[in-house]
Amino acid sequence: MVKLEEYLNQDIDQPKYLFHGSPYLLDKLSPRKSHDDENKSNEDLAIFLFPMFRKVTPYALRNAFSQKVDGIAKEDSYFSTTLKGKTYPFATIKNRIINQDEKGYVYVFLRDETMIKDNDSYQYRCYHELVPIDIIEVRFKDFVDDFEIIQDNEKIKHSNL
Q1: pTM here?
Q2: Considering the chain, what percentage of its residues have pLDDT values greater than 70?
Q3: Cis omega (within 30 of 0) on the bond before 51?
Q4: What is the CB-side half-sphere exposure of residue 10 using CA atoms within 13 A?
Q5: Among 30, 78, 86, CA closest to 53
């Protein structure tokens, strides 16, 4: 737990570690093509990293709220994140079924010169395979306060939290 405290409290302006979140347990990470309908500059064949542990937990836990409800329009049911700042919430979940016990993984890497920081955010990119120095298992229920949860549709209100 000592390492977790160090990860959670590092200075993101001068990071020692970078993090990547995934719902899958892997031995190593390889660059993958990303897709971003809202910001095409985020589409790249890379491993995306961030210097704040809590900012990558939404990606690690995305299977916890991937289930949509039939009959709810796409614009009324979504998951979105923001990686620009240090403020809460780190993600918004609207009208999704949430599994509080779902787990995911945060991969920890020592920052090096091959990890390139984006000019307009805290996000970094790496273009080669990486082996983590640590892997932390996370659960949605332990990070629920990092999310804005909007449940304003009657079909879903009684199935969550």
Answers
A1: 0.83
A2: 74
A3: no
A4: 22
A5: 86
